[in-house]
UniProtKB/TrEMBL annotation:
It comes from Lentinula boryana. Gene3D superfamilies: 1.50.10.10. This is alpha-1,2-Mannosidase. Its cofactor is Ca(2+). It catalyses: N(4)-(alpha-D-Man-(1->2)-alpha-D-Man-(1->2)-alpha-D-Man-(1->3)-[alpha-D-Man-(1->2)-alpha-D-Man-(1->3)-[alpha-D-Man-(1->2)-alpha-D-Man-(1->6)]-alpha-D-Man-(1->6)]-beta-D-Man-(1->4)-beta-D-GlcNAc-(1->4)-beta-D-GlcNAc)-L-asparaginyl-[protein] (N-glucan mannose isomer 9A1,2,3B1,2,3) + 4 H2O = N(4)-(alpha-D-Man-(1->3)-[alpha-D-Man-(1->3)-[alpha-D-Man-(1->6)]-alpha-D-Man-(1->6)]-beta-D-Man-(1->4)-beta-D-GlcNAc-(1->4)-beta-D-GlcNAc)-L-asparaginyl-[protein] (N-glucan mannose isomer 5A1,2) + 4 beta-D-mannose; N(4)-(alpha-D-Man-(1->2)-alpha-D-Man-(1->2)-alpha-D-Man-(1->3)-[alpha-D-Man-(1->3)-[alpha-D-Man-(1->2)-alpha-D-Man-(1->6)]-alpha-D-Man-(1->6)]-beta-D-Man-(1->4)-beta-D-GlcNAc-(1->4)-beta-D-GlcNAc)-L-asparaginyl-[protein] (N-glucan mannose isomer 8A1,2,3B1,3) + 3 H2O = N(4)-(alpha-D-Man-(1->3)-[alpha-D-Man-(1->3)-[alpha-D-Man-(1->6)]-alpha-D-Man-(1->6)]-beta-D-Man-(1->4)-beta-D-GlcNAc-(1->4)-beta-D-GlcNAc)-L-asparaginyl-[protein] (N-glucan mannose isomer 5A1,2) + 3 beta-D-mannose. Signal peptide: none annotated.
Length: 632
């Protein structure tokens, strides 16, 4: 019916006019090429993935659309470090003006809040950053407050200092500043604080309770079931305090926790520590495994306690190897389209079946790639025999049931290489969670898409296992097919930024994840890992990505008196929240600054960061100290 249309007649006539026909065909070819470029070029739109990519996707990985500048001059990086220093000054001066000596400033209302005891946590958390940045005026103005702070709370019901936060922020800040400056006031205040908190250890096995009122009554609070991160993230701080003061009692506090962890029955969790613990029996209470909230710092302290003690505490090393073996074999997974490597949490015993994964990926978990890179950099993972360690002896089926097979599986790989693959793949995903957002800042929590049934997965022996594709399954397949291209989940990938209409419709799935908690809380974990990947590999792409994140922080979170958390990273202009946590000074800006200066004042073989980024010097016990402290 269209043959009688005028356009149809015109097109028919072109067949008898070769010149116009050639012009028309040429225009069609040029237009097609242009449209194809616009459609597939990641600068302008999302990448397209084949529907068959899941069935055999792992011969290589998607390439990133750009290569971060590798020729940036030292002067430029120094200028960037100075920009971070100016950001610190901007935020800290706002705190001094509107909030000091209280805990934190509210950077929108210029009010303050006392959420960590009211002792001025921002000052304590910021001391070592000031020292590293050479901010003498700010340090000198803070010290009179530090010296006069009264570590006390009203002796009324409900007033308790949370032990975990007080240790990592206050005690860690004091000890780190003392190690850098050797000001005796700092050590004296650190020991006074430890004395005030000591009643918190009033449990049968020496695990700390949740909190204590530091007045003379020493009232304590906390349930019988404790949280892993809160009961086992003190080892670094108390070991350093013992070394600095020469007092065995502080070493005993740390060592008691280490011995309790080492003696725990982990046959249901593959050698990895679950979240909840019975403080009376010092044994696990559940089988919920995670490297995110409520668990992260304990896994971190296994490696770091070994490094802090100059690689002499072998028990911590073995616990670290068990934890990371289970994490790599059972908690690392790949998304279906972009092949994003992510770490999630699982529930239920792993003795007979796989744990059931939630496919939740937390920003807090983004410390893990840095930890794995640090371990690969500092440990002879490719020659554990030199340390008298056999992976098959520290974990096997007789010890951990089905999940004990993971030890034999990983023993077939170069463990140093495998840990670095995991580190780089996870860091890539953490970075993409930022790069995918219009603000350039990452959300607090995501739910990763999976193949098949997201909730229950397949049935094995009558048990419903969670869905998802285990990273080690993909690695095994890649290895057996000739190991061509980048390992699964490791290659660089292109950011995917949704349009506003795509976001509002909620129909786009090209990112391979949905956002559960869209806020950005000025968190440091991704930057921590970018810093450690830069220092351990020397690859400037990690440094360059850190700079992009800093630019986004400056662009979207800055206020006249500081920097504010964002309520969501998904919209522009960004919607700010009236909150600037003290860790922004202790961690976020510190890692950025250290990433951008060429000569690191905190060499990784001489210093160890606590979980609040407070560096402590590696400890070498003298023979007299070993005898006095009963260190074997």
């Amino acid at each position: 019916m269209y043959r009688s249309h005028p356009l149809s007649a015109s097109l028919r006539s072109i067949r008898h006019r070769p010149y116009f026909r050639s012009v028309l065909y040429g225009c069609l070819v040029v237009s097609s090429v242009y449209l194809l470029y616009k459609f597939v070029n990641p600068t302008y739109s999302i990448p397209i993935y084949s529907s068959s990519s899941w069935t055999d996707p792992f011969s290589g990985d998607l390439a990133e659309s750009y290569v971060p500048a590798d020729e940036t001059s030292a002067d430029v990086w120094l200028g960037r470090a100075n920009s971070v220093k100016l950001s610190f000054l901007h935020g800290y001066h706002g705190y001094e003006r509107y909030a000091q000596p209280n805990d934190e400033i509210r950077p929108l209302s210029n009010d303050y809040r006392n959420n960590f005891n009211g002792w001025g946590v921002t000052m304590f958390d910021s001391l070592d950053t000031m020292i590293l940045m050479g901010l003498e005026n700010e340090y000198n103005r803070a010290m009179p407050f530090i010296e006069k702070t009264v570590f006390s709370l009203p002796d009324v019901r409900g007033e308790f200092a949370p032990f975990f936060e007080t240790i990592i922020r206050y005690l860690g800040g004091l000890l780190s500043a003392y190690a850098l400056r050797k000001d005796d006031v700092l050590l004296r205040r650190a020991e006074e604080l430890a004395e005030k908190l000591d009643n918190v250890f009033a449990t049968p096995n020496g695990f700390p309770l949740f909190g204590v009122n530091p007045k003379s009554s020493g009232q304590v609070v906390g349930p019988e079931i404790g949280i892993l991160a809160e009961i086992a993230s003190l080892q670094l701080e108390y070991t350093a305090l013992a070394k600095f003061t020469g007092k065995k009692r502080w070493w005993d506090r740390a060592n008691t926790v280490i011995r309790a962890l080492d003696n725990a029955d982990l046959h249901k969790t593959g050698g990895m520590f679950p979240i909840r613990w019975n403080l009376t029996s010092a044994q696990p209470f559940d089988t919920h495994l995670s490297v995110g909230a409520q668990a992260d710092s304990t896994h971190e302290y296994l490696l770091k306690q070994y490094l802090l003690t100059a690689k002499t505490d072998k028990a911590n090393l073995i616990m670290y190897l068990r934890a990371t073996t289970h994490i790599i074999a059972e908690l690392l997974m790949l998304s279906p389209k972009r092949h994003l490597l992510y770490v999630t949490d699982t529930t239920f015993s792993t003795n007979e079946h796989r744990g059931r994964p939630s496919h939740t990926f937390e920003h807090l978990s983004c410390f893990l790639p840095g930890l794995l890179a640090l371990g690969a950099h500092t440990l002879p993972l490719d020659d554990l025999a030199s340390l008298g360690i056999d992976l098959n002896e520290i974990g096997n089926e007789s010890m951990f049931g089905r999940s004990g097979k993971s030890y034999k599986l990983l023993a077939g790989y170069n463990l140093k290489t495998l840990h670095m693959w995991a580190a780089e793949g996870l860091a890539q995903t953490c970075w993409l969670s930022y790069a995918d957002m219009p603000t350039g800042l990452g959300p607090d929590e995501m739910v990763m898409h999976t193949v098949g049934d997201d909730r229950w997965g397949k049935t094995v022996d009558g048990y419903k296992e969670g869905g998802g594709y285990l990273w080690m399954d993909a690695i095994e397949k890649w290895k057996s097919s000739g190991a061509r291209g980048a390992p699964p989940g490791v290659g660089d990938k292109t950011p995917v930024i949704y349009t506003e209409s795509e976001r509002l419709r909620g129909s786009a799935r090209a990112r391979d994840y949905s956002i559960r908690k869209s806020g950005y809380l000025l968190r440091p974990e991704t930057l921590e890992s970018l810093y450690l990947l830069w220092r351990t590999t020397g690859n400037n792409k990690w440094r360059d990505r850190g700079w992009k994140i800093f630019e986004s922080i400056e662009r979207h979170t800055k206020t006249p008196s500081g920097y504010a958390s964002l309520r969501t990273v998904e919209v522009l202009p960004a919607v700010k929240d009236d909150d600037m946590p003290s860790y922004f000074f202790a961690e976020t800006l510190k890692y950025l600054y250290l990433m951008f200066i060429d000569k690191d004042p905190i060499p990784l073989d001489e210093w160890v960061f606590n979980t609040e980024a407070h560096p402590l010097p590696v400890i070498r016990w003298t023979e007299a100290e070993k005898e006095a402290f009963d260190i074997q």
